[in-house]
Amino acid sequence: MIKFNLQGVDFIELIKLLKVTNICGSGGEAKYIVDGGEVKLNGEIEHRKRAKLRKGDKIEVFNEIIEIE
Fold first, then answer.
1. How far from chain centre, in Å, is Cα 34?
2. pTM here?
3. Of 25, 30, 38, 58, which has fewest CB within 10 angstroms of its CB?
């Protein structure tokens, strides 16, 4: 499990989170896996690349869980 701490902001966009947590090496790769239905937000498949993630959200991708704090 990866815990991601939002510091000084209210949200982070999904594709940016995938890059900063090193799940994806580039924005293009992040967009590709979101388009492919590989990412779940709070248990539901998420297709919005720029979905705004806030404290308490859980992201599941490639058998990894990212928790927003």
1. 9
2. 0.91
3. 25
Alpha-carbon torsion (48, 9, 19, 69), positive or negative = negative
Q: Which of 50, 62, 56 is nearest to 22 (CA)?
A: 62
Which structural domain, as residue segments, surrounds residue 17?
Answer: 2-68
Q: What is the structure's pLDDT at 20?
A: 94
**Count of the separate structural domains present in the chain:** 1
Using 70 as the pLDDT threshold, list the residues of the chain that sit under it. Answer: none
Determine how β-strand 2-4 pairs with β-strand 64-68: parallel
What's the CATH number where 42 sits?
3.10.290.10
How far is it, in rounded angstroms, from Cα 59 to Cα 40? 6
Measured at the CA of 40, the angle between CA 36 and CA 34, to 5 degrees, comes to 30
Three-state SS for 16? helix
